[in-house]
Amino acid sequence: MMEAMMTTEVGDEVFGEDPTVNSLEAKVAGMFGKEAALFCPSGTMTNQIAIKTHTQPLDELICDESSHVYQYEVGGYAFNSGVAVNLLPGVHGKITAAQVAAAIKPVYDWLPKSRLVVLENTANKGGGSYYTLNEMREISVLCRQKGLRFHLDGARIFNALVETGDDTREIGPLFDSISICLSKGLGAPVGSVLCGDADFIRQARRYRKVMGGGMRQAGILAAAGIYALDHHVSRLKTDNDHAKLLGQRLAQMPYVAAVRPVQTNIVIFDVHPPHTAASFWKSWPHTASKPRPSAPKPSGL
Predict the structure, then answer these.
(1) Selection from 39, 9, 30, 16 nearest residue 188 by Cα
(2) CA 78 to CA 223: how far, in whole Å?
(3) Which of 162, 178, 193, 299 is deepest in the core (most CB within 10 A)?
(4) Residue 194's closest CA among 45, 22, 23, 19?
């Protein structure tokens, strides 16, 4: 990956002149059967751009109560887009078409307008749970029927795909927009890609600029993303399998009260009293309270 980053061709990405960024965007769009894509520094930015592009102030988005767009993006849906959020109590971070249907608000002057549904796949706080193709399709059909836009926060979508065996081109048509994270398990140092139709991405580029996401010679980062997509997707199955082994071992420990179902690469467990998460972490051998060994100094410096 480092070699790919150091040897790639670059240009001014703000003007669309970085060939490596253009290649990455075309690659991701093609993988999911979309017309266009946009390379951004982070998944938070791609999610926030999607919300901004799909909605108007006084609209609302519908999502699970543990979703990243609600829990970990600093209330960006309100700050950037002026929209409300309608939180649903899913199971392990997953909501159903029936829940979405029940959450859609009637059209009254005193209510926000239900406009956008956001799914997170895999669900972080849900313990890495994932949606099946049929579950996503049911919500997609409902959104089409009700005139709602449909966005996928695909932060760990490839961790799900190596488990289900589904094809990216089966998922793409279900959503109006998809955010793909290139870091996390895929191992790129930075970056996410937002994909959708050409008009959507054209507007998304303007919102990326106003959010400070316009970059210059960004091909050095895009090259890492291309390498990750070409070489690291299949390795996510190993990550998932290791997490399952860890979950099985933890379930046998006397201090563990429960382990949530381990479906991909996230393990969440509860501890028995008098232990708490904080006390357990402090007593764990590798915590930050112990000094880290010094990194060796490069020779010749």
Answers:
(1) 39
(2) 33
(3) 178
(4) 45
Measure the CA–CA gap between 123 and 266, rounded to whole angstroms: 9
pLDDT in tens, the chain (301 residues): 999 999 999 999 999 999 999 999 999 999 999 999 999 999 999 999 999 999 999 999 999 999 999 999 999 999 999 999 999 999 999 999 999 999 999 999 999 999 999 999 999 999 999 999 999 999 999 999 999 999 999 999 999 999 999 999 999 999 999 999 999 999 999 999 999 999 999 999 999 999 999 999 999 999 999 999 999 999 999 999 999 999 999 999 999 999 999 999 999 999 999 999 999 888 877 655 555 445 444 444 3
Segments making up each domain of the chain, as ranges: 2-231, 236-283
Three-class HEC string of 71-136: HCCCCHHHHHHCCEEEEECCECCECCHHHHHHHCCCCCCCCCEEEEEEEECCECCCCCECCCHHHH
Residue type, 12: D
Residue in this structure with the two tokens 């790919």, named with its chain if needed: 4
What fold, for 2-231? Aspartate Aminotransferase; domain 2 (3.40.640)
Q: Which amino acid is at 262?
A: V
- Asked if residue 34 lies in contact with residue 196, where contact means CB atoms within 8 angstroms, the answer is yes
Q: Give the up-direction half-sphere exposure of residue 225: CA atoms within 13 A in the CB hemisphere.
A: 27
pTM over 0.90: yes
Per this entry, what is the length of the chain?
A: 301
